[in-house]
Amino acid sequence: MILLDGKTTSSDIKDEITLEVLQLKKEGKKTPHLAAVIVGNNGASRTYVGAKVKACNRVGFLSTLIELTDDTTEASLLSKIDELNNNIEIDGFIVQLPLPKHIDEQKVLMAVDPKKDVDGFHPTNVGKMALNLPTFISATPYGILELLERYKVETSGKHVVVIGRSHIVGSPMSILLSQKRTVGNATVTITHSRTRNLKEITLQADIVIAALGIPEFLTEDMVKANVTVIDVGITRVEDTTKKSGYRLLGDVAFDEVSKKAAYITPVPGGVGPMTIAMLLKNTLLASKNNN
């Protein structure tokens, strides 16, 4: 069993980006600048945004954190987005999800300029991704592609089963892996909460991507020997033995599934760090496009 180590791989990617940023500065070009907007006091969201800002500092990017209160109106948030769209100093920005219930997430994502949409969530960028045109690929699917490529996991002609059909992971992952690309050319089955005989389907899979948000859902009896398993899930589970009061679990029962797997991602330390690294890659791309 080979561990698909997202922590080490993301660190390598950050080192590569750091060298590119140094070269840009040497050539007198603009330093890439990422902004992040966070609304409210969601603990997990604040942790994620903090990690993104820290990653920017690590690679030499400029970063701006915009913190808004829970009672921020939708109109006020849309006004802030318009401001960022028109700020030539900002190359790309993200609006951290989830948003408070009184704000329409779709309206907010639609308001982001596609040229600055480094999260890859705008319909323009999703459409380009689906047509295999150059664009920003959503950071989590992008990170999974990069992990598979760097570990030389063969996808061509393989049967990939994706569990979960979210617009952020499951759906784009199914499209990307079926396309003609280095990490692609797979036969993809997308499954979800209404899928019947799920176990029969996952047992046929050469590669399983679990992205449904249910802790330890994928068990040993659901996979065949030498499978590749990508665990996208991350759930906080109460644990009084931990200083934090919780532990993190993925969608895969790691201890048992890892015994059958050829390749597997851990949680934490798998897909999560890759997501942040690919957000940086998208920001670097945005900066190049803008200049």
Under CATH, the homologous superfamily of the largest domain reads NAD(P)-binding Rossmann-like Domain
Mean pLDDT: 96
Number of strands: 11
Q: Order of SSEs, N→C?
A: EHEHEHEHHHEHEHEEEEHEH
What is the structural class?
alpha/beta
Write down the CATH class of the largest domain.
Alpha Beta
Q: What gap, in angstroms, lies between the N and C termini? A: 44 Å
Number of continuous helical runs: 10
Radius of gyration: 19 Å
Name the overall outline: globular
Key words describing this protein structure:
three-stranded parallel beta sheet, 291 residues, 18% strand, Rossmann fold, globular
Question: What's the topology here?
Answer:
Blueprint: E1 2-3, H1 6-26, E2 33-39, H2 43-59, E3 62-68, H3 74-85, E4 92-95, H4 105-111, H5 123-130, H6 139-150, E5 159-163, H7 170-178, E6 187-191, H8 198-202, E7 207-210, E8 227-231, E9 235-238, E10 246-249, H9 254-257, E11 261-264, H10 271-290
Parallel strand pairs: 1-11, 2-3, 2-4, 5-6, 5-7, 7-8, 8-11
Antiparallel strand pairs: 9-10
Helix pairs in contact: 1-10, 2-10, 6-10
